[in-house]
Amino acid sequence: MRKKLIAANWKMYKVPDDARDFFRNFLPLVADHSRDEIVVCPPFVDLPAAVESAKSSNVAIGGQDMHWEKEGAFTGEVSTAMLLAVGCTHVIIGHSERRQYFGETDDTVNLKLKAALEAGLTPIVCVGEVLEEREAGLTDDVLRRQCLRAFHAISAKKAAKLVVAYEPVWAIGTGKTATPQLAADAHQLIRSEAAKAFGEKLADSLRILYGGSVKPENAKALMSEEEIDGALVGGASLDPKSFAAIVKY
Ligand code: PEP
User: Fold this and answer.
1) Is 33 a catalytic residue?
2) What CATH number has the domain spanning 5-247?
3) Quick one: which of 115, 142, 145, 184 could link to 129 by a disulfide (CB 3.0–4.6 Å)?
4) Mean pLDDT in runs of 10 for the chain (249 residues)?
């Protein structure tokens, strides 16, 4: 049995006081929840407030991105050591908004994944097709390429903590959700790529999250699908009640 992981991606929303407010309201709602792992990924400047607020709770904190180098002249970037130093345990890598707007490539995803695993962070690697690719029947090719390149030259031993999020780009922030069956098909393909790269054992235990307009109303149907091992939630994670309802689907 894979323990599900429900992760919040706050994107570029909330200042530190908002983060504190969120946890004040959210933590009591999930205080006795142990069925799933819960992770919140706020903007970098909110991380200290989030870590402090979630201290001694069942909620872990993650970054939304990272650089693969340990340190250096990389203005605006954040290293794994920096994420660890403020108390992060997780990090999102290769989110489609990074790929779309900030030049993230399959190769930088691979560099980041290697660095995150090396540092002991739990990486949540995002893959997913855009609408034109789905309409052109290219979804499987895109997912295969993204996985192949992301997993390149990483050993099964190193990949133990890997988490993948399948996020069809046409479903992110659009209100359109993949059907549980469509998501399950993509998850199966990702799992078979993981089996090729890391072997069956790791692939069987690999958690593959679904992301794309997950809401309290559709969480149960998605999470009931055997292939779906959790969710990466954007918009609906900003409100404590709505994110708690998703966690407790
Ligand atoms: C996301 O940002 O990863 C995401 C899935 O966003 P939303 O839930 O708003 O579609």
Assistant:
1) no
2) 3.20.20.70
3) 142
4) 96 98 98 97 98 98 98 98 98 98 98 98 98 96 98 97 97 90 96 98 97 96 96 98 98
